[in-house]
Amino acid sequence: MKTYETLAIDVDPDGVGILTFNRPDKRNAMSPQLHRDMAEALEEIRYDPTVRVLVLTGAGPAFCAGMDLKQFFTELGDKPAEYDKVFRIATEWRGRTLRYFPKPTIAMINGFCFGGAFAIVEGCDLAIAAEDATFGLSEINFGTFPGGAVSKALANLLRPRDALFYGMTGRKFDGKVAADIGFINYAVPAASLRDEVMVVAREIAAKNSHALAATKDGYHHSLDMGWDAAISYANVMQDSLTLRQKGAWQEKGIGDFLKGEFRPGLEANPGLRDG
Ligand code: ACO
After folding, report:
1. What is the pLDDT of residue 270?
2. Is 173 a pocket residue for ligand 1 (Cβ < 6 Å)?
3. In terms of pTM, does the model score above 0.90?
4. What is the pLDDT at residue 275?
5. Inter-residue contact 163 to 154 (CB < 8 Å)
6. Can you give the pLDDT at residue 274?
7. N or C terminus: which one in the chain shows less Cβ crowding within 10 Å?
8. Which residue ranges of the chain lie beneath pLDDT 50?
9. Residue of 67, 69, 141 best suited for mutating to test ligand 1, as the one with most atoms within 8 Å of CB
10. What are residue 106's phi and psi, to 5 degrees?
């Protein structure tokens, strides 16, 4: 895989790609270069067959300290075209690209997670944090609001009272609270974070990749549809999945169950991983 100035990417033999924001000295704040790197890396990983599940995390004590306040807001302040270009890339990769990424994504939140980083967490399918990770909507503390994709990320995931409480106070909260308010799946002690995430990632990496992509698509697109359109879309997607798998979920999935070879309620059919 290509080398990136602000990222490190490793892929393990089970198909788990780990993308690490790699500006620890700046608490992995999202500089314009990091946004450009992310857009390019996600495009590369999208088509890399060795990556089945993507984990996003940060180097050092931070997951991501939000937008790079100096390089983005200050240094691009008098360059409207460049500001607009970076803003568009920044919004696209955290919002649409991650949301509709054809492979499962997991945010592994190892430390500080502020402001614009909430949109990364929300864009990922799953999020698991260290219990002592620090989250905060700090925008209010420097006199602004959760702009860009962040307000929508809050609206998508949080209950109104929590979104407005943390948005208006700027109070920080830890991984346990992030789980309690539904911003992440769950939190674990920092020392076991990586192992825990890898167990989940490998479990998902062993499932059928077409079925995983359909699971994401069905969920995300249904959110914006009425009931009739959602059912119609699901029916079309079912046909499309059958085509892409060449009928495998019926023949091997249901077929092997009927032969008594496995119980889908309790385990996956290993022969369906790549089919
Ligand atoms: N943008 C630019 N630089 C940053 C950012 C950021 N968001 N966050 C940290 N840095 C830089 C610091 O300026 C410092 O740089 P320096 O060594 O050149 O002086 C370096 O990272 C280390 O930061 P410290 O504050 O010394 O680290 P510490 O571990 O004590 O604190 C913390 C970390 C809590 C993350 C603190 O840096 C902070 O409050 N950062 C801002 C977080 C924030 O409000 N993010 C923006 C949200 S709004 C948005 O994203 C739109």
Report:
1. 83
2. no
3. yes
4. 56
5. yes
6. 76
7. N
8. none
9. 69
10. -130, 125
